[in-house]
Design brief:
This protein has helices spanning about 1-5, 15-20, 25-40, 45-70, 80-85, 90-115, 115-140, 140-145, 150-160, 160-185, 190-215, 220, 245-265, 265-280, 285-300, 300-320, 320-335, 345-355, 360-370, 380-390, 395-410, 415-430. By secondary structure, it is mostly helical. The chain has a domain at about 1-230. Helix 13 runs antiparallel to helix 14 (about 265-280), helix 16 packs antiparallel against helix 17 and helix 19 (about 360-370) packs antiparallel against helix 20. The radius of gyration is 30 Å and the shape is elongated.
Length: about 425
């Protein structure tokens, strides 16, 4: 919600879209280089044609990287490096395939059901194209992107704003052709080709940036997850990529797909996807761990839920999520009292449960250490804390005194003995 509050509606930000390519020297240099190459190889011929195809692929690939970065909340153009330009170049081809599919299906409909119906489908496909691209980014799946169940729902969730976005996209798409129409008659051919190529690159990047921003603005409605810490504006911060950030990128991508499945009610698919993507290293991201826990709970997969409880609780404790950790522990404990959790986690849970006025549940956490790991070094501490709660919160000093005496007998040389003896002296006075 913090990120959502910082996101301006795209219609209020329109002037900033036109400065986007200029906000990074690298993106501006890329536009210039692609324009120069387009001018040099503007002649007819197989080699020149292949080079122009390569130029187009590089432009689409970089523009898609801009869409992806913007949708994550990074409002600075992506770096121009080998990862951005060459890594997974299939993304550029896939977008071309989307266009081919729309045209091909329209042709089939024209041939079988009539020209009018084919034209209607073609118009629908053209209007849906931005939604298909956005669905592809959100799901990472080619087949999910072309599935009307996904992209039509995406359009409806954005609502009338989708049509407003589409109107501006049409203007951006038409801008280079409009420029060419007005300049080709009085400028030399080389200058005309360069200016057209420059405008085409410039407006294409803005085109994708606008789609990414709409995805960012409506991420909650769509089910597309962003990390508020990633929300950056070029006027305030610079994009810095670290190894940790790259790991977060992978987790966010997984979460986006999981959230998309959940939005569609595809809980089994979401569970299968999480298991497949995390089978090597396991779940290391708290947000993903939470989604996995919720899905297991919805599907009532109790054995898997209990097996996930210990690592999930460990992550919650590391994140200092007191209330969530206590809630998960109590929930799992009610499902199966034989729940296996590591003693350090149980010790912390016992402390938090006591702080949140759940003394009986806190004692259960300490008892699990005592009964399940009787030789663990934390057992004396568990005894002491349980007895203290029994005395102070449950008003049962007689029982607490028995536990303190048992602690003295079983662990006569433990460092906690001075505290135990002090508690026994206080009980004797009362």
């Amino acid at each position: 919600m913090g990120a959502s509050n910082a996101i301006e509606p795209f219609w209020d930000r329109l002037p900033k879209f036109f400065t986007y390519p200029f906000s990074s020297p690298q993106s501006l240099a890329l536009i210039f280089v692609l324009s120069v190459l387009s001018t040099i190889f503007s002649s007819q011929g197989l080699i020149a044609g292949l080079i122009r195809l390569a130029i187009g692929l590089v432009l689409i690939k970089y523009s898609f990287a801009a869409l992806k970065a913007t949708a994550r909340g990074n409002l600075t153009p992506p770096k121009v490096d080998s990862e951005t330009i060459y890594n997974d170049i299939s993304q550029a081809f896939i977008q071309t395939i989307f266009v081919i599919i729309i045209v091909a299906v329209s042709g089939v409909i024209m041939a079988t059901a009539g020209v009018a119906l084919g034209i209607v489908f073609l118009i629908f496909g053209i209007i849906s194209f931005p939604a298909i691209i956005m669905s592809y980014l959100a799901t990472g799946s080619f087949f999910s992107a072309i599935n009307p169940v996904f992209f039509v729902k995406l359009m409806f969730r954005i609502g009338w704003s989708y049509l407003l976005m589409y109107f501006f996209l049409i203007l951006l798409y038409s801008a280079p052709a409009a420029l060419l129409h007005y300049i080709h008659t009085f400028l030399p051919r080389g200058v005309t080709v360069f200016l057209f190529a420059f405008a085409n690159s410039f407006y294409t990047i803005i085109f994708y940036h606008l789609m990414g921003y709409v995805l960012l603005q409506f991420h909650q409605e769509i089910g597309y997850r962003i990390d508020p810490e990633d929300f950056m504006d070029s006027s305030t911060q610079s994009a810095k990529k670290t190894e940790q950030a790259e790991e977060n990128d992978e987790n966010i991508q997984i979460l986006n797909k999981v959230d998309f499945f959940i939005k569609e009610g595809k809980y089994d698919e979401a569970l299968t996807f999480i298991k497949r993507e995390t089978q090597e290293e396991g779940i290391t991201d708290l947000a993903l761990s939470e989604q996995y826990y919720k899905l297991l709970k919805i599907k009532k997969q109790t054995p898997a839920l209990l097996a996930h409880a210990s690592p999930h609780l460990k992550m919650l404790i590391q994140a200092n999520r007191k209330e969530n950790a206590c809630e998960v522990f109590i929930d799992c404990l009610n499902s199966d009292n034989n729940l296996l959790i590591d003693p350090p986690i149980l010790l912390k849970l016992g402390s938090w449960l006591n702080e949140t006025e759940k003394p009986k549940e806190a004692i259960k956490a300490y008892n699990k250490i005592i009964k399940e790991k009787p030789k663990d070094q934390l057992v004396p501490i568990a005894y002491f804390r349980a007895a203290s709660i029994i005395n102070e919160k449950l008003n049962n000093p007689a029982r607490a005194k028995k536990i303190f005496n048992l602690l003295v007998k079983k662990f006569p040389n433990h460092d906690i003995l001075p505290q135990v003896e002090n508690s026994l002296r206080q009980l004797s006075r009362t």
